Amino acid sequence: MSDNILEVKNLNINFKTFAGTVQAIRDVSFNLKKGETLAIVGESGSGKSVTTRSIMGLLASNAVIEHGEILFKGQDLLKESAKEMDHHRGNDLSMIFQDPMTSLDPTMTIGKQVAEPLRIHGKISKEKALKRAQEVLELVGIPNAKNRMKDFPHQFSGGQRQRIVIAIAIVNYPEILIADEPTTALDVTVQAQIIDLMRELQEKLETSIIFITHDLGVVAGIADRVAVMYAGKIIEVGTVDEIFYQPKHPYTWGLLSSMPTLDTKGAKLSSIPGTPPDLLDPPKGDAFAPRNPYAMQIDLEAQPPFFKVSDTHYAATWLLHPDAPKVQPPAPIVKRAQEYAHLMQTGAVDTPSEGSQN
Amino acid sequence: MTERKKIIQVQHLKQYFSPGKPNEVRAVDDISFDIYEGETFGLVGESGSGKSTTGRSIIRLYNPTSGKILFEGQDISKIKNHSKDMLHFRRNMQMIFQDPYASLDPRMKVKDIIAEGLDVHGLVKNDQERDQRVKELLKVVGLNPDHVTRYPHEFSGGQRQRIGIARALAVDPKFIIADEPISALDVSIQAQVVNLMKDIQRKNNLTYLFIAHDLSMVKYISDRIAVMHHGQLMELGSADAVYNHPLHPYTKSLLSAVPLPDPEIERRRTRLPYDSSIENNTHDQRQLREIGDGHYVFCSEEEVDGYKEQMQK
Questions:
Q1: Dihedral sign from CA coordinates of B272, B274, B279, B280
Q2: Which A residues 128-157 touch B at CB under 8 Å?
Q3: Dist CA A298 CA B78 (whole Å)
Q4: Can you tell me the distance from the alpha carbon of B281 to that of B261, in angstroms, rounded to the nearest whole number?
Q5: Residue A123 contacts B where some CB pair is shorter than 8 Å
Q6: Quick check: A271 and B271 CB within 8 A?
Q7: Closest residue of B to A192, CA-based?
Q8: Using an 8 Å Cβ cutoff, are B207 and B222 in contact?
Q9: Cβ neighbours of residue B297 closer than 8 Å, sequence gap 6 or more
Q10: In angstroms, rounded to a whole number, what is the distance separating the alpha carbons of residues B242 and B296?
């Protein structure tokens, strides 16, 4: 698997708190291929942000990495020294944060902020760095960038600020760009623009993107592959079509059916009952079992391993065990599968392997 | 539609901040609409469009710059502060806020948070009755009645939002303004809260003003929807009409930006940009005009025929 630019293997991260040890990440493994967008979805507390922060080496001081490897081009990032991580951050790994209001320095002109990674990571003159900063600002669609280099963040709108944050992240052509809920704080129309921008930049720069979000609508628009996290574990991973049209895990079913589509009428929204488990004391069996209407006895006793659905699609649910009874997924999920099958027949679907985006 | 009782009438409401000064902000600029008893009225728009200001004006957190708001036929700006009428008004109209973390006093127990309204309005005679009522309310919103002595930080976001709903329900209101009540919640919890709000509405014959920017959720919960932009209403109609047959270009643009959890749709999506210059052409005659049955569009007189034609299609 030489095309994997990043491989995360059996990652376990705990947080030491006054209340005890929180097992935030419990045996997470995934990989990221060159040039693809992997979306990680999950509720707050599911561990999606902790996973990506561990890649960047930005974990809080009370975090303990129990074991695991994060291989970036074959090199384990967890074994790197602080200095070596400094070299990676903002250079070949960079990150976009959720809130564009707080991730820019309010006292520094935007030209300087965009040029900063260049000045830190490369031997480049100030003039050249600023010139390059201006080019990147133009690339991310800041109108009249030349004259706005000396403006401060408060002189820009929320959407423009997020564009500036993106400019800072891509100025050194990172190999991996991690976007942690980059559009959550933005209006739908601005969100749509930022997503378009990220797609466009990915095509131009061939960056691999890890996109963290809880918004399944955004995922459908940007991802090649999707990993669904619940209670510190990845519970299902597959191509975007597999996850949205042929999901296998009851949690993914629940997530997809609790979102009203534009033709959901009158009827009650199906919701997932209950709340996520407390990771101070994670359950012995499947963490989702208490909220899972399809739970079986074994779900309470043992954690399900990954079952292979296809070469790209894996799900951790006992329902896929050969001995498990056949169950009928909820109606909205069945409907999705049928619509997809219909589209396949009429040949309206471009297979994702052909690299169709947009 | 037979003659339905109007619970709220907003007439030419203008809400300016710092009026007359150079930094004047026209948050709400001449809007009119009615809300009928028992319905859910959805108000959508981007941030800064004035939707929250409208809600806050209706519950009289602001005094309107001009225009009138009638609640059950009574002009709310005529109600005197600290009067009996004001108490009555506040009891009948309640609000649910966006942020379940900021809207509950962290130093009050759940029972005191919920019972505050009961105390203010003198709705319970003694402590026993008070506890009884609080426990009932917790049951209604699906929380464990034994948790009355807990503090807000001991609850999750979804549970806190339920406490906020219980607090609003405590005084038996007729009308509830929900300002982005689910935006701060996780997807799987959003559906729970929305279902709860619908259940309670059916049981208590409540009227909701549901303010949100999540358009698919608004479509789901609302009977009628108004789309707001730059302090004005762009389109108003039944949820079905506004979503499935939008007429105003701003509504179309907004809907074209809503991401749907369906990769095939997303791949084919084309977004429609909105060019606000069409508003400038004949601005002074622009107002909401009825195009079809109860379907209003913000336009000038000469555009009406064009929209009518569009609707025929």
A1: negative
A2: none
A3: 65
A4: 38
A5: no
A6: no
A7: B257
A8: no
A9: B234, B235, B247, B248, B288, B289, B291, B307
A10: 9
Whether A254 and B264 lie within 8 Å, measured CB to CB: no
Contacts of A256 in chain B (CB under 8 A): 261
- Residue A350 reports pLDDT greater than 70: no
Angle at B183 between CA B180 and CA B189, to 5 degrees: 120
Q: What is the pLDDT along chain B (313 residues), one digit of tens a residue?
A: 457 899 999 999 999 999 988 888 999 999 999 999 999 999 999 888 999 999 999 999 999 999 999 999 999 999 998 899 999 999 999 999 988 888 999 999 999 999 999 999 999 999 999 999 999 999 999 889 999 999 999 888 889 999 999 999 999 999 999 999 988 788 778 888 899 999 999 999 999 999 988 888 899 999 999 999 999 999 999 999 999 999 999 999 999 998 888 888 888 888 888 887 777 766 567 889 999 889 999 998 888 888 999 888 7
CB within 8 A of A132, min separation 6: which ones? A115, A118, A124, A171
Contact (Cβ atoms closer than 8 angstroms) between residue A233 and residue A60 = no
Torsion sign (Cα): A252, A231, A278, B134: negative
Contact B267 A343 (CB under 8 A): no
Residue whose entry in the numeric block shows the structure tokens 């809920």:
A181
B chain contacts of residue A221, beta-carbon cutoff 8 Å: 259, 263, 266, 269
Domains assigned to chain A:
1-92+175-358 (3.40.50.300), 102-171 (no CATH)
- The domains of chain B, with CATH numbers, are 6-230 (3.40.50.300)
For B188, which of A195, A271, A357 is closest by C-beta distance? Answer: A271
Q: Do A220 and B263 touch (CB under 8 A)?
A: yes
Angle at A162 between CA A161 and CA A164, to 5 degrees: 65
Q: How far is B98 from chain A (nearest CA, A)?
A: 14
| Partner-chain contact B244 A43, CB within 8 Å | no
Look up residue B143 and give its amino acid.
L
Long-range CB contacts for residues A304-310, cutoff 8 Å, separation at least 24: A307/A248, A309/A238, A309/A242, A309/A246, A309/A248, A310/A238, A310/A242
H helices of chain B, where?
A: 51-58, 84-92, 110-120, 127-140, 157-169, 187-204, 215-221, 239-244, 249-256, 263-268, 277-280, 304-312
Q: Tell me which DSSP letter residue A309 carries.
A: S
- Per the structure block, which two tokens stand in for A176? 């991996």
| Residues A141 and A197 sit within 8 Å (Cβ to Cβ) | yes
What number of CA atoms fall less than 13 Å from residue A79's CA on the CB side?
A: 8
Q: What stretches of chain A adopt beta strand conformation (E)?
A: 4-17, 20-33, 37-41, 63-72, 75-76, 93-96, 176-180, 208-213, 225-230, 233-239, 307-308, 314-315
The predicted-structure confidence for A267-311, as pLDDT tens digits, reads as follows 678 888 888 888 888 888 999 999 999 999 999 999 999 999 999
Which residue do the tokens 């012995």 mark? A284
* Paired residues of A17 in beta bridges: A20
Residue A328 DSSP code: P
Q: Give residues 193 to 212 of A whose Cβ lies within 8 Å of B.
A: 195-196
Please list every residue in chain A whose beta carbon sits closer than 8 Å to the beta carbon of residue B215. 188
Instruction: Say how far apart CA A236 and CA A244 lie, in whole Å.
Output: 11
Helices A188-205, B249-256: crossing angle, 10 deg rounding: 50
Q: Is A244's CB within 8 Å of B262's CB?
A: yes
Q: How many angstroms separate the CA of residue A139 from the nearest CA in chain B? A: 20
Give ipTM to 2 decimals.
0.80
